[in-house]
Amino acid sequence: MQLLYNHYLQYYQRWAFESNNKSLRDFVHFVFGIAEKAFHLFLTQFYLFNIQKGSGVLCRQKPSLAISGKLTIGNGVRIWSQIEKTRLSVFKNATMQIGSGTFINGARISAKHHVSIGKNCTIAPEVLIMDSDFHDLHDQTKEGISEEVIIENNVWVANRAIILKGVRIGAHAVVAAGAVVTKDVEQFAVVGGNPARVIRYLNKM
Known about the structure:
about 200 residues; single chain; 8-stranded mixed β-sheet; 6-stranded parallel β-sheet
């Protein structure tokens, strides 16, 4: 409800105070904006039923969820499935945490051990994040190795990037489109390529 109230204030202030020439069209846009937000908040409660989540979590279209372990979603997280369907898988005894303010749009994220995504991250369409090989390299009938994946706060992971097991991505880092991340990424680093390498540092430009 807090998110809906904030959205109401945003639209009302724009309509009532910022515009010197208020029109019926502005008012209708204001009303429909509030109604649309309320509708998506209502649907989100069904999409994420029985999921531990904070306030103001918002889905646009239904994500695919396969949850046998524990999924925790922070305040104000947005999960979109408009370009590609977002798919979240948490296996038995595994955990996944999504920090407050993070935006996920059409990514596939799988946890067999532990995946943690920090606050205010952006995860773009067709990104793949896995903390497991799923199959042993030498004997594919055996279970593969699993190692936790940690993505710190304010990280941007661009389209079709792949983040593999055992990786920690530092705060404010950027993973370029199509990158394959197999090793840790430093804070403020921009990485790209296969395997991903440092292109530059945001605080050293």
